[in-house]
Amino acid sequence: MPKDASIRKVMVIGSGPIVIGQAAEFDYAGTQACRALKEEGVQVVLINSNPATIMTDTEIADRVYIEPLTVEFAERVIARERPDGLLPTLGGQTGLNLAAQLAYMGILEKYDVRLLGTPLSAIQKAEDREMFRETMREIGEPVPESWIVESVEQLEEVAQICPYPAIVRPAYTLGGTGGGIAYTHEELMHIGQLGLNLSMRHQVLVERCLLGWKEIEYEVMRDSANTCITVCNMENLDPMGVHTGDSIVVAPSQTLTDKEYHMLRTASLNIIRALGIEGGCNVQLALDPNSFQYYVIEVNPRVSRSSALASKATGYPIARVSAKIAIGLHLDEIENAVTKKTKACFEPALDYVVVKFPRWPFDKFVTADRRIGTQMKATGEVMSIDRTFEGALMKALRSLEIGVIGLTRRGTTALSDMQIEEGLATATDERIFIIAEAFRRGMMVEEVAQLSNIAPWFLEKIRQLVEMETRLRLHARDLRDFALNPSEVHPMAELVRAAKGKGFPDAMLADIAGVDELVIRRARKVIGIEPVYKMVDTCAAEFEAETPYYYSSYERGESG
User: How does strand 249-251 pair with strand 228-236?
Assistant: First the structure.
């Protein structure tokens, strides 16, 4: 089906000011979408209150309005520009909420503006907690035991009967704003009232807390012909109880069996079809690590923070494709921008591992509570790609710019054994370093898994990194000799090769050997240890790619 010829001018809503939980991810999506619309000959009108974004550059949109994202100002822009359609799913929760308000107040109908992409009914079904719960039950998808609360009186009633711990999820908020985990009646009343005040609909969901379960996300795409694909599936290293924006996220999932993967994939595709979403959609699920029991936690009927991650991780431009679907195109008509040969209906394939690591501002707010939970505290994130989880994790740690080059952070070595155990049980920005320290002190994977609820597969990989570090330190003198007298037959050559394969940087090897970083670099080059470069091409080299991008790896083999 060709582009809808009646759509000549589209208004795009941005995400507003940069706040914790909503920032550059949505600028990335909005910029992509504006360019995609212009490619199709559509005039683009952009409204955003934040001038410090790429999307507000005058070259990105035909008309740019830097105005407050309120109903009053949005109506003024609509009255002046008279767009044919409104695209609200690219500006995070701010854009979605503003579009919903414009629809509820009859402003879109008044000016004959169509809501493009995801219809209002889908937004309501996904964002309104009661409607979402009922929709899931209608299609047979399990949701946790829960209660809808719209007043303090109802909250008091629920507090008397719900099991603890309980989780509070406000409707129409982003980044877990106003939510949290309540362990007591008093905590539930406090968090619940805050959530009611911050929710646009004055509505919260109180539900059974699935602490310790695996948290899995699927990024899915659907067009108006009901064609659906899975763009990417992601696994949170941290278990349920930590907001996905504060979790270390790995793509593709590493610990799911084939049965679990396809079970959750099928559920995600059923959900996007039932909601009637057109474009990108993020589905969050909880999986019991000891059975095949799962629950649907939440759906974002818009381009989300995870969409930006999935786009960069796979090379599949979710926001670009979503924008083209919004103006009537189908997935089999949209060209894959990377291969230039396949269409957007072709599911991406990953032959590498991606790690997203959050960046918290605790170095600036030193007295802040470092515990992380259901309300997001990260102000940014890094993404790394390698052939292995270990390599990607080590790259991510170095990219954080917090003064670390590996799994050691100043302060963790001084912790007592009891503090280590407490640090494993409590999610903080430093837990990954505490896990490494626990292994240095001889703790077993099973012990760490029991305290942290992190899947043993991830913990074993971290233990192997610590083991490699320990071996290097035990042979520090030999490593120094190798650095000064490199040779293929040197006893340390294979250990250095193995360390580079696991992502150990030259700076760390140099620190252990007590030499300059350049000395290590020259030494490894003498014996042929150099990075090779692999492609991110959306199709795992099944088709030739026109515009791929690359990542480095110390895997043996030719560059390609």
Answer: antiparallel
